[in-house]
C-alpha cells in the first residue's frame, strides 16, 4: 500500500509497518525482522521505519517501536543512549592549518578512543579508557555517581563495570570525532558515542533477564531477542531506572568529549574562537515515555532520532560522506522521528572482504583520517547513499546545514 510519503507493510496477525524507504534498498531479512516485531501484542498503532533501516539484533536498526505495557531491552540495544553532538564555532575554513595532521593528533591525544583486543592474555586498563581522568570527568561523574550506586544495590553485577574511566571517551566501531565545514565554510565540531562499557553491561544484563523471564513463563517468541519486560514487574522497573541513567551517562559522555575536543583544538589554533553557536546533543538508541495520538506510550528509537516540530537533530553520513543538521517537522505518523544516519548495506565482515586500502584512500580523499585496513569496514560504499536517504524522509525533516568533514578520528 502506498501513501503520499511512505509505504505500508501489512503483517498478518500484527500491527502495520509504515516505511519511509522509497528509493533506498531494504533487505529481505530486515523486512522479516520488522514483521516479527510487529507481531508483538503490545505494539501501539504501528512501527515506523526510517530510510536507513537494516538488519539488527532482534529488531531492525532504523525503526521506531512504540509500546504499551512492555519494553524490549534488545530493541534499545547495548549501546544505550548512543547518539550525536555537534557544535558550530566562530572559526572559518581559512582559520584551519594547511596541514591538518597535528590537529588530528591533538584530538586523538585528548580523547581516549579504540578498544584493547579481547584476548585471554589481555590484562590491565582498556586503551580506550582514562588512566587518570581529567577534572571535567570528575565533575560529570559527580552528577552520576549517587544514582549509579543506588542502581548497583539492586543489580550488583554492574558495580565493577567500566564507568568512571569510560566517561568522556569515544569507543570503537562507527563512533567518531570530526571537524567539519558547513555550506558557508564555518567550522563545526561533531562527535558520535554512547554509554560505553557501563551501558553495554546494563543492556546485556536486562536482555538476559528478559529472556530468562520468557523461559520461566513459557512464552514463545518469533525471535528470542524480542524478549520483553512487562510493566509492573520488578525487572521492568529496574530496567527503566537503569536505562534512564545510562542515557544520562551517554549525554554527559558527549558533553565531556566536546569540552576536551575544544581544548585540543585550541592547542593547535591560536586564534580565539567561540563554540556552541548552534549546538545539538541527541540520542539515537534509547527509550522514553512520550505522548502520541492522545496516549502516553514508551517509544523505543533503535537507530532513529527525535524530530518534533522545530527540534534540531543530526543525521551523519559515513566516513568520507556529508552529514546533515536537520529541523524536525513533527510528523505524527513517524512518531516525530527521522533516520540516525545512512544505514549499512553490508556487514563489517563483508566490507572488509570486498574493499581494499586503496578503495578507502580514494573514498576519504581530502579528509585527514586513518586510511588503514582496520577502518575499511567504515568505508562509505558499505553504507546507503545519504542523498537518497535524505530524499526519502523529506516529509520528516528540513535540512538546516550540510556538513563535510575535513578531520575524522575513528575508534
Automatic annotation (TrEMBL):
UniProt catalytic activity: a 3'-end 2',3'-cyclophospho-ribonucleotide-RNA + a 5'-end dephospho-ribonucleoside-RNA + GTP + H2O = a ribonucleotidyl-ribonucleotide-RNA + GMP + diphosphate + H(+); a 3'-end 3'-phospho-ribonucleotide-RNA + a 5'-end dephospho-ribonucleoside-RNA + GTP = a ribonucleotidyl-ribonucleotide-RNA + GMP + diphosphate
Cofactor: Mn(2+)
InterPro entries: RtcB, RtcB-like, RtcB-like_sf
SUPFAM superfamilies given in the database record: Hypothetical protein PH1602
Catalytic residue list: 340
UniProt keyword Protease present: no
EC number: 6.5.1.8
Residues covered by region (Disordered): 114-136
Cofactor: binding comment: Binds 2 manganese ions per subunit.
Keywords on record: GTP-binding, Ligase, Manganese, Metal-binding, Nucleotide-binding, RNA repair
Positions bound to GMP: 174-178, 284-285, 316-319, 323, 340-343, 410
Binding positions for Mn(2+) 1 per the UniProt entry: 79, 175
GO biological process terms, semicolon-separated: DNA repair; RNA processing; RNA repair
Residues holding Mn(2+) 2: 192, 284
Oligomer and partners: Monomer.
The protein, known as: 3'-phosphate/5'-hydroxy nucleic acid ligase
Amino acid at each position: 500500500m502506498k501513501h503520499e510519503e511512505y509505504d505500508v507493510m501489512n503483517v498478518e496477525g500484527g500491527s502495520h509497518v509504515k516505511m519511509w524507504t522509497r528509493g533506498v534498498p531494504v533487505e529481505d531479512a530486515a523486512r522479516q525482522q520488522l514483521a516479527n516485531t510487529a507481531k508483538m501484542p503490545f505494539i501501539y498503532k504501528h512501527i515506523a521505519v526510517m530510510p536507513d533501516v537494516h538488519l539488527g539484533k532482534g529488531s531492525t536498526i532504523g525503526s521506531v517501536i512504540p509500546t504499551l505495557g512492555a519494553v524490549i531491552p534488545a530493541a534499545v540495544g547495548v549501546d544505550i543512549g548512543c547518539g550525536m553532538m555537534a557544535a558550530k564555532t566562530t572559526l572559518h575554513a581559512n582559520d584551519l592549518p594547511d596541514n591538518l595532521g597535528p590537529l588530528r593528533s591533538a584530538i586523538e591525544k585528548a580523547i581516549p578512543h579504540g578498544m584493547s583486543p579481547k584476548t585471554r592474555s589481555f590484562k590491565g586498563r582498556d586503551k580506550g579508557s582514562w588512566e587518570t581522568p581529567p577534572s571535567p570527568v570528575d565533575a560529570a561523574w559527580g552528577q552520576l555517581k549517587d544514582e549509579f550506586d543506588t542502581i548497583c544495590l539492586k543489580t550488583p553485577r554492574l558495580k565493577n563495570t567500566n564507568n568512571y574511566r569510560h566517561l568522556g571517551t569515544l569507543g570503537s566501531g562507527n563512533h567518531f570525532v570530526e571537524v567539519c565545514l558547513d555550506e558557508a565554510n564555518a567550522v563545526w565540531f561533531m562527535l558520535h558515542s554512547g554509554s560505553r562499557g557501563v551501558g553495554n553491561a546494563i543492556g546485556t544484563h536486562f536482555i538476559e533477564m528478559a529472556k530468562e523471564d520468557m523461559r520461566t513463563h513459557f512464552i514463545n517468541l518469533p525471535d528470542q531477542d524480542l524478549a520483553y519486560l512487562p510493566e509492573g514487574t520488578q525487572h521492568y522497573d529496574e530496567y527503566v531506572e537503569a536505562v534512564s541513567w545510562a542515557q544520562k551517562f551517554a549525554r554527559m559522555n558527549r558533553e565531556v568529549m566536546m569540552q576536551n575536543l575544544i581544548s585540543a583544538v585550541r592547542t593547535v589554533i591560536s586564534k580565539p574562537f567561540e563554540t556552541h553557536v548552534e549546538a545539538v546533543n541527541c540520542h539515537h538508541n534509547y527509550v522514553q515515555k512520550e505522548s502520541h495520538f492522545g496516549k502516553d506510550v514508551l517509544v523505543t528509537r533503535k537507530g532513529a532520532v527525535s524530530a518534533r516540530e522545530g527540534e534540531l537533530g543530526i543525521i551523519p553520513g559515513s566516513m568520507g560522506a556529508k552529514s546533515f543538521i536537520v529541523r524536525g517537522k513533527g510528523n505524527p505518523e513517524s512518531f516525530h522521528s527521522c533516520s540516525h544516519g545512512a544505514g549499512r548495506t553490508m556487514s563489517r565482515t563483508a566490507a572488509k572482504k570486498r574493499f581494499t586500502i586503496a578503495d578507502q584512500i580514494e573514498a576519504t580523499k581530502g579528509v585527514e583520517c586513518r586510511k588503514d585496513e582496520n577502518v575499511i569496514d567504515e568505508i562509505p560504499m558499505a553504507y546507503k547513499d545519504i542523498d537518497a536517504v535524505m530524499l526519502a524522509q523529506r516529509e520528516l525533516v528540513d535540512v538546516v546545514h550540510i556538513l563535510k568533514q575535513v578531520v575524522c578520528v575513528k575508534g
